[in-house]
């Protein structure tokens, strides 16, 4: 989940707001170019970095990512105005959804386990005796780790009676569940996109805010401005992300120029029914379990790292897929924009022609601030399409499994749901085991969500899980059950 | 005579909410016990401070009686309340 008390998150949002305001101003190019100077004017205090120039360089990189630029290919000689022109004129967004800001990356010291001065040189010496790699020796009466032998297993840390042994971590590397981000030859973080599953965990983990989503704000704003039929598709997790109801947000989006607004819960209802059917067929043919298929980061994980579990993943498409299909059917000439709690969905969108753009909730929030819209004062506009309580419940942990269970009707007792509440190294190990054994002792319908807490814990959310889930539940209370006929 | 309560207003306008007031909602839901009934916290629609102060972009804003807290966090709000109560 995006941490609301984190200064890097604040900075990112402030920059996105400034980009929107610049877009709406008389001179987008000039005002975008000035953002780093407006934020760090001459003589201002330097809150984070060594000097004002370094601050501005990092802010410039953030503006570029906010414009959707791939910083890895950045030609530093161009002005921000040039990047604005490219953003305005590009036909398609760059591939790969994340980018590393070199000027913001600290180039953290590499991962290592080492002994601090708290070591008392005790007689028991459990560290030496526990190390299976013979990496610890006593030198001058203190324990010392030979880094060339240490495998960073952490056993010595556990056994030290003084807690004198610590692990220094590189936050992005440490949090990445698939080893896709690591210090490159320059010492700065580098993403291997052949491995990356776009889960966004590194974006949240980096305390320097050096990993950034490539925003598609400008692509969307340009298309709205040119009068195209831009249709917003709101993820069910949007309930509770802003101080308003989904119906008020419908109005707010129309005020900003969206042609129509759909709930993706509409597509979630289709997913629920198809997945229930899929589940029954699999159980009848003797399968021991099935996993859900709506989390974009999980689908990438399966594709890139865990092909062995693919036969157990439901063939059902995601709620977004079905919603976009329906929108295109109604408006063949529309530009479709998904409003998303996470960056992973941007990766999913690149796979389907029906999904043109994805804005995260942070970007949606920035847009509303930039347009100066008080969502709480907006009238309510009802949605044209029916969405059920079960479809709207998708963003809560267990919500997807519950929708499948409900859709099974009289067969609902055949389901034993189990939730993988967050993809990490440990849950990946468990999933591999289920695939290998062809069975899962915990249940037969496994709901896999990359983010703990489900979609309301997405990497680009605006609200805490606690208050957001309250709002989602309040919305469910007002909703009707899925029609199973 | 009854003592006047400290009046805490958490701005829940769009700007404040997006910039972090979402985090302050917990204050509204549960005022810490140690303040007893000396403090009242409410969420209010846009206080209008962002439109005056935007170029400094100090949202989210919270008002503790008449004092404006910029870039408000739960800790900053507590500190302001404590100061008023003479607890600091």
What does this structure look like?
The complex is a heterodimer of chains A (485) and B (88). Chain A has 485 residues and is α/β, with parallel strands linked by helices. Chain A has three domains: 7-106 and 179-215, no CATH class; 112-168, Alpha-Beta Plaits, CATH 3.30.70.20; 219-477, Fe-only Hydrogenase (Larger Subunit), Chain L, domain 3, CATH 3.40.950.10. Helices cover 39% and strands 12% of the residues of chain A. Chain A has 20 helices and 15 strands. Chain B has 88 residues and is of the alpha+beta class. Chain B has one domain: 3-Layer(aba) Sandwich (Glutaredoxin). Chain B is 32% helix and 20% strand. A four-stranded mixed beta sheet of chain B has the order 2-1-3-4. Chain B is globular, with a radius of gyration of 13 Å. The two termini of chain B are 25 Å apart. At the A-B interface, helix 1 and helix 16 of A face helix 1 and helix 2 of B.
* C-alpha-based Rg of chain A, rounded: 24 Å
Share of residues in strands of chain A: 5-15%
CATH superfamily of the largest domain in chain A: Fe-only Hydrogenase (Larger Subunit), Chain L, domain 3
CATH class of chain B: Alpha Beta
The whole-angstrom Rg of chain B is 13 Å
User: Which topology of the largest domain in chain A does CATH recognise?
Assistant: Fe-only Hydrogenase (Larger Subunit), Chain L, domain 3
Order of strands in the sheet with the most strands of chain B?
2-1-3-4
Biggest sheet of chain A: strands side by side, in what order?
Answer: 10-9-12-13
Largest sheet of chain B: 4 strands, mixed
Class from secondary-structure proportions of chain A: alpha/beta
Integer count of domains of chain A: 3
The figure for the number of domains of chain B is 1
CATH class of the largest domain in chain A: Alpha Beta
């Amino acid at each position: 989940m995006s941490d609301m008390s984190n200064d890097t998150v604040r900075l990112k949002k402030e920059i996105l707001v400034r980009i929107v305001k610049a877009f709406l101003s008389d001179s987008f190019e000039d005002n975008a170019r000035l953002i780093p100077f407006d934020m760090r004017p001459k003589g201002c205090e330097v809150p984070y970095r060594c000097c004002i120039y370094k601050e501005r360089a990092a802010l410039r990189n953030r503006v570029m990512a906010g414009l959707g630029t791939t910083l890895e290919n950045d030609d530093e000689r161009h002005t921000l105005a040039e990047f604005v022109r490219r953003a305005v004129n590009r036909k398609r967004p760059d591939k790969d959804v994340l980018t590393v800001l070199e000027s913001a990356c600290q180039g953290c010291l590499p991962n290592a386990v080492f002994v601090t001065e708290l070591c008392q040189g005790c007689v028991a010496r459990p560290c030496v005796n526990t190390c299976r790699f013979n990496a610890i020796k006593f030198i001058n009466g203190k324990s010392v780790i030979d880094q060339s032998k240490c495998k960073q297993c952490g056993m010595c840390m556990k056994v030290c009676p003084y807690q004198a042994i610590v692990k220094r971590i590189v936050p992005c590397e440490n949090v990445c569940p698939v080893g896709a981000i690591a210090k490159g030859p320059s010492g700065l973080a580098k993403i291997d996109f052949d491995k990356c599953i776009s889960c966004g965990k590194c974006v949240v983990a980096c305390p320097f805010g050096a990993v950034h989503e490539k925003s598609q704000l400008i692509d969307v704003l340009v298309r709205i401005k040119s009068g195209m039929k831009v249709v917003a598709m709101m993820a069910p997790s949007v309930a509770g992300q802003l101080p308003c109801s989904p119906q008020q947000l419908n109005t707010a989006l129309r005020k900003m120029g969206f042609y129509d607004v759909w709930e993706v819960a509409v597509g979630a209802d289709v997913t629920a029914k198809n997945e229930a059917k899929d589940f029954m067929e699999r159980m009848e043919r003797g399968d021991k379990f099935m996993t859900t298929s709506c989390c974009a980061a999980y689908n990438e994980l399966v594709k890139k790292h865990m092909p062995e579990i693919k036969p157990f993943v439901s063939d059902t498409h995601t709620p977004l897929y079905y919603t976009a299909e329906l929108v295109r059917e109604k408006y063949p000439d529309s530009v479709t924009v998904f409003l998303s709690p996470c960056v992973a969905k941007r990766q999913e969108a690149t796979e389907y022609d029906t999904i043109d753009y994805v804005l995260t909730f942070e970007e949606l929030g920035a847009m509303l601030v930039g347009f100066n819209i008080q969502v709480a004062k907006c009238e309510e506009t009802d949605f044209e399409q029916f969405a059920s309580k079960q479809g709207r419940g998708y963003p809560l942990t267990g919500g997807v499994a519950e929708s499948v269970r409900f859709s099974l009707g009289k067969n609902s007792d055949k389901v034993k749901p189990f939730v993988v509440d967050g993809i990490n190294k440990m849950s990946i190990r468990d999933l591999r085991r289920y695939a290998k054994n062809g069975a899962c002792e915990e249940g037969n319908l496994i709901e896999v969500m990359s983010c703990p807490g489900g979609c309301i814990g997405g990497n680009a959310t605006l609200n805490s899980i606690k208050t957001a889930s309250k709002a989602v539940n309040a919305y469910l209370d007002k909703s009707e059950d899925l029609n199973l006929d | 005579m009854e003592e006047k309560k400290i009046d805490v207003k958490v701005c829940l306008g769009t700007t404040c909410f997006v910039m972090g007031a979402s985090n302050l909602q917990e204050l509204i839901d549960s005022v810490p016990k140690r303040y007893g009934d000396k403090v009242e916290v409410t969420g209010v629609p846009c206080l209008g401070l962002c439109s005056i102060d935007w170029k400094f972009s100090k949202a989210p804003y919270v008002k503790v009686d008449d004092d404006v807290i910029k870039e408000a966090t739960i800790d900053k709000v507590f500190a302001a309340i404590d100061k008023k109560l003479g607890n600091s």
